[in-house]
Design goal:
The complex is a heterodimer of chains A (326) and B (241).
Chain A lengths: L13 E7 L11 H18 L3 E4 L13 H11 L4 E8 L5 H14 L4 E6 L4 H6 L7 H18 L6 E5 L2 H10 L3 E3 L5 H17 L8 E9 L3 H23 L8 H16 L3 E3 L1 H14 L1 E7 L7 H12 L4
Parallel strand pairs in A: 1-2, 1-9, 2-3, 3-4, 4-5, 5-6, 6-7, 7-8, 7-9
Chain B lengths: L1 E7 L4 H12 L5 E4 L3 H7 L6 E8 L4 H14 L4 E7 L4 H16 L5 E2 L4 E2 L26 E4 L4 H9 L2 E5 L15 E5 L5 H8 L4 E5 L4 H16 L10
Parallel strand pairs in B: 1-2, 1-10, 2-3, 3-4, 4-7, 7-8, 8-9, 9-10
Antiparallel strand pairs in B: 5-6
The chains are: A alpha/beta (326), B alpha/beta (241).
Chain lengths: 326, 241
């Protein structure tokens, strides 16, 4: 639950912390045994602060060891904690088989007392699809086939496993709407884009005769600071690195494009994405988050881990954000 | 000799936790679950001993299995063991999956051209994609101990060739042959098995005996009965009386 430090407004949005990609980045190339030990400590901290949940991410075959098996990492976090929810943000479903994911999710839900949630999305990086013998261009068709099957398996699990559909476009929102599954909106959309996407979702859902889900989930890049100058000088290079990496995955250098032109394109994307960052005091961040709650997002997963931040800074940011949780 | 308990069926966390703790307090080297690496990763947070996962091979892409193994090994700080149960009608499919799994876990940069798998696929529709790929992150252990359940004669040869161990189901008269690798033969045993029979089966070789148990009491009694005789030749029987 998100609470106001000043108690001037009441909110019941749930706050999650993330997004843990477990990256051994060049500027801080920790061994993965340490990175996962840190994750488990961060999960314990999040639980003690009253966060609703912690969220893990998935990518494959990347040099920094980006977590390729978020359900396995989720199993470890569920084993270490006792109340905290654990979710995938997001699992790249077209690269998996629904029966395997459904069976493992059901097992983890049973063993984890219903604390597992699945966020699933299309994926986009071609070498990942290629590694598994899949065509990126088939990802929509694969999702259309896999998502209803997985939704059925997750609904039948005891306890049932909530599914959120990761979306960054209206087309993806319509797919989720036809199934009546709640959204997991990408962090890069601004409020106007979110409204547009929710409208597309509702239209598709109503046309399919599906009831409205209880709520939707939203990812936001969030950093709570008590010292903006100090924290921005630490944070900006890390954000820039992370956004460059995602940018290079989303739109690789084109044939014939010069390196200088490509770098310019990446920088423009970084600038655009940074506009959606929420950076400020707990009060400022709380007020911003309530604006998104008002749009219909009952679960907000705050990304405060960008790549592999310095431990002390990340812990301080989680603790500061935690004043809004609980 | 090594002693494991399981594979435990995955029912509730309370039952699984009680069994795993009993194994830890009963001198077992490893607690095995009949489930995916994700469950082993969970159990590894409850106990300090090694954890084993019994999983199918041949049904799902071997790179997913390699990734699951790597992350479970890392989250358990290098305490994972794996037993593979062939699960495809076509033995050639299983063999290819074992090959790709072995290469992936080794940390090599993979380019595999098989009858059933091509890794990376390098599909024309996928544009510019790498010619090779590597498992990232790699497991914490230099070599994750992996055994292949030998339910047909073919598996022992391929497992040996790839550096995997071989696991058998217990039967009277079982006798270990020599192995080229340092992984001991694993044997899945009922908990009625006698230590003298296990030692006779092992002969001059090391053995890894994984014994069934369904309650914490079973686990404790089995550990008490087997651990001493398996670890020390001519273990004095009166110590267990």
């Amino acid at each position: 639950m998100l609470r106001s430090p000043r108690c001037c407004w009441a909110g019941d949005v749930r706050l999650g912390i993330g997004i843990f990609g477990m990256q051994s980045v060049p500027q801080r190339p920790d061994h993965h045994v340490k990175l996962y030990r840190d994750l488990l400590e961060d999960a314990e901290l999040a639980e003690s602060l009253g966060f609703d949940s912690i969220w893990l991410s998935e990518h494959h075959f990347w040099f920094d060891g980006y977590c390729p098996a978020d359900l396995v990492a989720a199993g470890a976090v569920l084993g270490r904690t006792s109340r905290l929810g654990v979710g995938t943000a997001v699992m790249l479903l077209p690269m998996h088989l629904a029966d395997k994911v459904g069976a493992e999710a059901a097992t983890l839900s049973r063993l984890g007392d219903g604390r597992l949630s699945l966020g699933v999305a299309l994926g986009y990086r071609e070498p990942e699809f290629d590694g598994f013998g899949l065509r990126r261009k088939d990802r929509g068709k694969l999702m259309d086939a896999l998502l209803p099957e997985l939704a059925g398996l997750c609904a039948a699990a005891r306890p049932a496993v909530p599914i959120y559909v990761g979306v960054a476009t209206a087309v993806a929102a319509q797919r989720a709407g036809r199934l009546g599954l709640p959204l997991f909106a990408d962090s890069t959309m601004n409020p106007a884009e979110l409204r547009e996407m929710l409208a597309a979702y509702d239209a598709a859902r109503e046309a399919a005769g599906m009831p409205a889900p209880a709520t939707h989930a939203l990812q936001r890049d969030v950093y709570v600071t008590g010292d903006p100058e100090r924290d921005w000088s630490m944070l900006f290079p890390e954000l820039r690195y992370m956004r460059r990496q995602y940018g290079s995955w989303s739109f690789p250098q084109a044939d014939g494009e010069s390196s200088a032109a490509y770098r310019e394109r990446l920088e423009a994307d970084i600038e655009a994405k940074l506009k959606n960052l929420i950076f400020g005091s707990a009060d400022e961040v709380g007020a911003k988050l309530h604006e998104f709650e008002a749009l219909g997002f009952g679960l907000i997963v705050c990304r405060s881990q960008f790549g592999n931040l310095p431990r002390a800074d990340l812990r301080r940011a989680i603790e500061a954000l935690g004043t809004l949780a609980g | 000799m090594r002693l494991g308990v399981g594979p435990l069926s995955v029912t509730s966390s309370a039952e699984l936790r009680a069994l795993a703790q009993a194994a830890t307090e009963s001198s077992f080297d490893c607690v095995w679950v009949d489930g995916p690496p994700a469950v082993a990763a969970m159990v590894a947070q409850w106990v300090p001993i090694r954890v084993g996962a019994v999983v199918e091979v041949g049904r799902h892409h071997p790179l997913h299995l390699a990734e699951d193994i790597a992350v479970a090994d890392i989250t358990s700080a290098g305490r994972l063991e794996v037993m593979l149960r062939p699960a495809h009608d076509d033995p050639d499919v299983v063999k290819e999956h074992l090959h790709v799994l072995a290469i992936a876990l080794s940390g090599a940069h993979i380019q595999w051209e098989g009858l059933h798998l091509r890794v990376p696929a390098r599909l024309a529709d996928n544009g510019r994609v790498p010619q090779r790929l590597a498992l990232n992150p790699r497991p914490a252990q230099p070599i994750v101990p992996v055994w292949v359940v030998d339910h047909q004669s073919d598996w022992a040869g391929i497992a040996d060739a790839l550096g995997f161990g071989v696991a058998w189901r217990w039967r009277h008269g079982l006798a270990f042959g020599p192995t080229r690798w340092r992984l001991p033969r694993a044997v899945l045993c009922p908990n009625t098995v006698e230590p003298a029979d296990l030692l006779a089966a092992a002969g001059d070789q090391a053995g890894y005996f994984i014994v069934e148990a369904s309650t914490p009491g079973d686990v404790r009694a089995t550990g008490r009965r087997l651990a001493g005789p398996l670890r020390m030749p001519e273990f004095p029987a009166w110590l267990n009386e």
